[in-house]
Specification:
Strand order of the largest sheet: 7-8-9-10
Radius of gyration: 31 Å
Strand content: 25-35%
Structural class: alpha+beta
Number of strands: 12
Distance between the termini: 65 Å
Helix content: 10-25%
Shape: globular
Number of helices: 1
Low-confidence stretches: 1-15, 41-54
Length: 157
């Protein structure tokens, strides 16, 4: 049998000897639980970003990196996103899948207005993704991007 403190146990015995589980006054246990629940709710509210964050991309968007990483007349390959971003002319950004249409290797470089796949020497136009040479059967598929706050953001397809 466990020892109980009548002031903290919801089951008490009244002076007539009858067990009672209801009381007009809340017990310390109930008050403590209520205080913990209220504090937890306040903590959750404090964790929210309030919807006003300007640096975060909306759900489904992926920030690739700063525009300064993509040289004018060249490009950058984002291996983890399997995307190549080019900048054919200043401020004009294009994005394509970085997966070669020949045998699904990742493209390896961007130079001289061309995206090059080192696996079998396929070349694509850095402005349009069109096949320029090699065994690639189709152009690179365009990917939707936007520039926001100096960052290149990949949008969901």
């Amino acid at each position: 049998m466990r020892a109980t403190d009548p002031s903290t146990d919801p089951t008490t015995v009244d002076p007539t000897g009858t067990p009672s589980t209801s009381s007009a006054e809340p017990t310390r246990r109930i008050l403590l639980c209520g205080a913990l629940v209220a504090a937890g709710g306040a903590g959750l509210v404090a964790c929210g970003d309030g919807g006003g964050s300007k640096d975060k991309a909306p759900a489904g968007d992926k920030v690739l990196g700063p525009v300064g990483d993509v040289p004018v007349g060249g490009g950058k390959i984002y291996d983890d996103a399997k995307v190549v971003v080019t900048q054919p002319t200043a401020g004009d950004f294009k994005a394509f899948t970085a997966v070669c249409t020949h045998q699904q290797c990742l493209v390896g470089s961007v130079a001289g207005g061309q995206i090059h796949c080192p696996c079998h020497n396929s070349n694509y136009d850095a402005n349009t993704g069109a096949v320029l040479g090699g065994p690639a059967p189709r152009p690179l598929a365009a990917k939707p991007i936007v520039v926001t706050n100096g960052q290149i953001v990949l949008k969901p397809a």
